Amino acid sequence: MVRYELPESELVCGHDGHALVEIGVEISEQLDVIPEQVRVIQHQRVKYACPCCDLGIKVTPAQPRIIVRGLLTESALAWIVTGKYQYGMPLYRQATMLRRFGGDLSPNTLAASIVRIGRAVQPIINLMRDVLLDSDLVFGDETTVQVLKEPGRRAQTKSYMWAQMNGSGPPVRLFTYAPGRGGTHADKLYAGIRPSAALMSAGYEVYNGLAAAYGLTHLGGWAHARRPFIEAEDAIPKEARGPDQIATRFIRLIGKLYRAEFRARDWASSRRQRIRGRYSKAVLRNIEQLLLAKLHVVSPGSLLGKALHYLHGQWPKLTR
Description:
By secondary structure, the protein is α/β, with parallel strands linked by helices. It has helices at residues 74-86, 91-101, 107-133, 183-190, 205-214, 222-234, 246-263, 269-294, 303-318, and strands at 47-48, 58-59, 137-145, 159-166, 173-178, 198-201, 217-220.
């Protein structure tokens, strides 16, 4: 808080000369940023000795650290991890920022710290995976990721980040790197999943194998079904776009399902089930009618045709 006061020479009424008294303040606020600081914390472990002999020496034990004899505090490690994984800041940039604040650390030192953190928290990750695989509902997806200087692989080689999250119980989000997206990688990630669980995924064939192998209820994702229609709509020339375009009609109908779910997001499950039975089912019938009417009319090789055939192939999973 910064307080501004008039000088004493001005605390006089201009009409009758009486001294002015404070009756309040006018407040305005600004957002300020305190630049980050680097500091060195010195840890002093007190030593004790017996004044009568030289055998009774004791030293205060060191406090536990996530990295034994590590150079960085837990707060500094959290800053580095957050910058890299939440804000996508490469370690060499973080090293440059630290030098601006007075900390001279190389990117290699930061990278080694990241590796040691990963090893230290692996037991926690294992417990999180146990919770996820024991959930009633599990979501799965995978996306490409580029890895530089990976032994035995070119930088242009596709690698994958597998994402998993649960829809029941304590929330868990797991991201796992794998050099590919084949069934062997999926089997490792989903080994031990509850047989009665529901798995929601895209239409990638590997997930069909997982559902069959583990006796899962396989669900489709409307976000995956909607995306190809958006791509098809984007390909339409601007002057030809309009509400009667097939892709636009599908997007509008799927949007009704989204709005119903958004409206019911805080409702009790029984009430949410009622709106799905009364409203969403009618929307699904409209989508299915439009799908069957256009499926064999549009060229399957076009963007719209691919969207229609994907939706048709996923329809049983989308409507369970």
